[in-house]
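Q: I have two molecules that I believe assemble together. Could you output structure tokens for the complex as a whole instead of separate predictions?
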Amino acid sequence: MEDQTLLPHLFRTEYRNIVSVLCYLFGIQHIEIAEDLVSDTFLSATELWSLQGVPDNPRAWLYAVAKNKTKNYLKRNSLFENRLSKEITYSADKSEEMEIDLSEKNIADSQLAMIFTICNPCNAPEAQIALALNLLCGFGGQEIADAFLTNKEVIYKRINRAKEKLKEANIKIEQPTVAEINDRLETVLKTLYLLFSEGYYSTSQDTPLRKDLCSEAMRLTILLIENKATNKPAANALLALMCFHASRFEARTNEKGEAILYEDQDQTLWNKELIETGKAYLNRASTGDELTKYHLEAGIAYWHTQKEDTAEKWENILSLYNSLLILEYSPIAALNRTFALSKAHGKKVAILEAEKLKLTDNPFYFSLLGNLYSELDNEKAIQHFETALRLTNSAGDKLTLTKNIQRLKEAKAVNNKPA
Amino acid sequence: MNEFLIAIHRDLKSKDASPSPEQMQASIKPFQEWIGKLIAEDRLVSPYRRWDGVGRVVKKSAVTDGPYAEIKESLGGLFVVRAKDYDEAVEIAKGCPILEWGATVEVRMALVSA
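A: Yes, here they are, computed for all two components at once.
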């Protein structure tokens, strides 16, 4: 790896590892100290490596320096005596022998404990996601701001407030007990799901950044699956869902970062390996008697990996959307159900039901109606697309809607031409 | 908008009234489709839930195992929907696919508290 890319790469992967281990050791109250120590380690690396060259094993170097800096800090500071010595069985004068365990196992354990802390519902979902990106994924303020389409200051404020909340609530950084896991895993999965969606559906046109968000969400979900206690069917279902969606990543945007609709995607760009991996996780999710929305959404996403429109495909998708609605109503599920209905039972049946949905402030409602009326009543279809265009804020959706309107108007012009 | 109780009554007791496993299987999908449609239209007042077919029957003198079956039919499903009036609520109830299997659906309007 080139020297210029090595350090940012190590920062992305190792910053979070060392921060997690130190936080796990110090507790949430001293999170800034952990971050300072690790930042300081990377600062030393930047200075020394540019003068003396990159060491043979850069990661080992970082770990050794981080350990030394931590030990020195503890020696100089009362933190160790006042707080840590009560919890760790070492005494102050033995601080030099204190083990800062940067083994692969302890890094994984620490990250897992951090996931559960960060996804604590005392913070709002968007704060949890910002915090996760910062502490668990090693994203800088600017990158997070780009993903959320906001500025760095907003993100810094959000992250700092979220940390304060965790401290006030005195949330412990610890492995959840077996009894706690089911309860707490639900909020963790929700945050990981949102993190993935942030990357997958973000309006940011920065494709590499969006891909990073998705792969980070997948990495953290894998972390849950690799731990026996958290390897639950719901986690496997969530990962299956992510695999199926991510399989289309290369096919869903053009070189300008504009969205390519499902129907128009080049199927050869779909990642077959990810689809197969997704299937394996979906199989593993099909144990036990718990049926979560991740199971249902993964089922729907699975059927979307079959490009060909078959009756079987849309009957299955329709029935999965019905079950999803029974589990939890959401306008988007209601709209998607109606789209599946049109594919399974025809546009006319779907229009009758769509018009009862009355989601009149939702642009997707009108673009659905536009799609359903296309070819049946192009005049009405154009009206609905135009309403959708007025309601949407997304540049990508505006582009698609404008194209649809243009296509229908052109069709009209051709039809009206005198013979 | 008013709220209506939709109560599905069906014969849960006598043997010949129990659907075969195939019939059960065949009735799940239309039922799910019907409920899915009502939820999509945001008609359900509270989240949909299933009720077991067992229950207890409480009287002053005793508590007996359910379901309540002094009449032939017991409560098989229960939920509350939003509808403008009885006509609309009855339209909704008519869509219940369990009617095909001999169920009766009772519709009752909730009174607005004074």
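A: One point stands out. Residues 89-96 of chain A have pLDDT under 50 and may be disordered.
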